[in-house]
């Protein structure tokens, strides 16, 4: 049994397989073809933080595949009344086939997985957001990679530069793991005090990223420019301080102008126009944020299929 708790839980070769499955599954959806390999399977979704995309994409995806979902939040379950996470895992995993959790500390999802009888998927923690990077990479490949006999040419990612502008947060950490596994480099620019920490990011060396004090320099020559909110969920008390600290880390037309001429712009959403990105960039021609959001559903359908049924064919 496999869990998907962080990006490095899978190898490069598993990602190549998964991206090809995503392509097939997405095509079927676009052709209105029924594909229901998960009939009678149930996904429990546990949300300890808010969500729009993660909830809709997992829920719609599971129904499309013939399965059903149970939606739990801290407020409407015993999780909010201090039932131990280990006990919750033992109970929930006796009744469903798969669990998705969005919570605070990564240790919490690890404790859940350690006591679960079924695969557990990370739907975002303070440290990581692997389903989002799965969608972002698929989106990049869809826009930029040729398709060979065995699916996307994964070498299209090798040597590429992803510019990360903003907070050294869960998204940044997950980008670093992806870079280490898939062979690209992340140019990271954060305000002082908000740097990425290779230990928290869970990478084995610092070779997959370079640090830039100036966000413009991080974007120079990048194939993909990406950012995220300045204040992640769980850090709301720091909002005022962060607004001041991050003021120079707004992705704007000047940053896009020094990136590759065909560079893509991504943002996991929700976005705050005028804070981490200008409206001109996020609503402009290089932005692929709506594809990114839609692809959450397609990648997670392939992920659920893989965790529950293994390789197809
Ligand atoms: N990007 C993302 O995870 O969005 P939600 O918080 O809406 O789920
Ligand atoms: N870094 C953000 C991502 C939201 C999808 C957060 O954790 O709130």
TrEMBL record:
The positions making up the signal sequence are none
* Name recorded for this polypeptide: Ornithine carbamoyltransferase
What function does this protein fulfil? Answer: Reversibly catalyzes the transfer of the carbamoyl group from carbamoyl phosphate (CP) to the N(epsilon) atom of ornithine (ORN) to produce L-citrulline.
One Gene Ontology molecular-function label: ornithine carbamoyltransferase activity
- Which residues make up the binding site for carbamoyl phosphate? 51-54, 78, 102, 129-132, 268-269, 296
Aspartate/ornithine carbamoyltransferase Asp/Orn-binding domain sequence ranges: 158-307
Name the positions where L-ornithine binds. 170, 228, 232-233
Q: SUPFAM superfamilies in the record, alphabetically?
A: Aspartate/ornithine carbamoyltransferase (SSF53671)
Under Enzyme Commission nomenclature, its number is 2.1.3.3
Q: Where in the cell is it found?
A: Cytoplasm
Which reaction is recorded as catalysed by this protein?
Answer: carbamoyl phosphate + L-ornithine = L-citrulline + phosphate + H(+)
- Record's family? Belongs to the aspartate/ornithine carbamoyltransferase superfamily. OTCase family.
InterPro entries, per the entry: Asp/Orn_carbamoyltranf_P-bd, Asp/Orn_carbamoylTrfase, Asp/Orn_carbamoylTrfase_sf, Asp_carbamoyltransf_Asp/Orn-bd, Orn/put_carbamltrans, OTCase_ArgI
Q: In which pathway does it act?
A: Amino-acid biosynthesis; L-arginine biosynthesis; L-arginine from L-ornithine and carbamoyl phosphate: step 1/3
Any Pfam family matching the protein: OTCace_N
| Organism this protein belongs to | Ideonella lacteola
Q: Which NCBIfam families match?
A: orni_carb_tr, PRK00779.1
- Write down the superkingdom of origin: Bacteria
Which residue ranges does the record assign to the Aspartate/ornithine carbamoyltransferase carbamoyl-P binding domain? 2-142
Annotated keywords: Cytoplasm, Transferase
Q: What is its main location?
A: cytoplasm
């Amino acid at each position: 049994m496999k869990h998907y708790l962080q990006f490095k839980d899978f190898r490069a070769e598993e990602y190549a397989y998964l991206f090809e499955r995503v392509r097939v599954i997405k095509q079927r959806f676009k052709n209105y073809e029924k594909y229901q390999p998960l009939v009678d399977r149930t996904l429990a979704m546990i949300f300890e933080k808010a969500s729009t995309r993660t909830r809709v994409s997992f829920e719609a995806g599971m129904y499309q595949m013939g399965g059903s979902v149970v939606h739990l939040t801290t407020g409407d379950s015993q999780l909010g009344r201090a039932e131990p996470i280990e006990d919750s895992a033992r109970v929930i995993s006796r009744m469903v086939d798969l669990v998705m959790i969005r919570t605070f500390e990564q240790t919490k999802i690890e404790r859940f997985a350690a006591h679960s009888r079924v695969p557990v998927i990370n739907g975002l923690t303070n440290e990581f957001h692997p389903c989002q990077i799965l969608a972002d990479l698929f989106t990049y490949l869809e826009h930029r990679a040729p398709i060979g006999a065995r699916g996307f040419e994964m070498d299209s990612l090798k040597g590429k530069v992803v510019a990360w502008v903003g907070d050294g947060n869960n998204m940044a950490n997950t980008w670093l793991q992806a870079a280490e596994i898939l062979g690209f480099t992340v140019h990271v620019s954060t305000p002082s005090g908000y740097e990425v920490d290779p230990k928290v990011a869970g990478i084995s060396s610092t070779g997959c990223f370079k640090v830039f004090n100036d966000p413009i320099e991080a974007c120079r020559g990048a194939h993909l420019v990406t950012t995220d909110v300045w204040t992640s969920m769980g850090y709301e008390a720091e909002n005022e301080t962060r607004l001041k600290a991050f003021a120079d880390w707004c992705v704007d037309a000047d940053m896009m102008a020094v990136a590759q001429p065909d560079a893509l712009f991504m943002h996991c959403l929700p976005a705050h126009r005028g804070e981490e990105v200008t409206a001109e960039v996020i609503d402009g021609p290089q932005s692929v944020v709506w594809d990114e959001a839609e692809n959450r559903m397609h990648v997670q359908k392939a992920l659920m299929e893989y965790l529950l049924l293994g390789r197809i064919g």
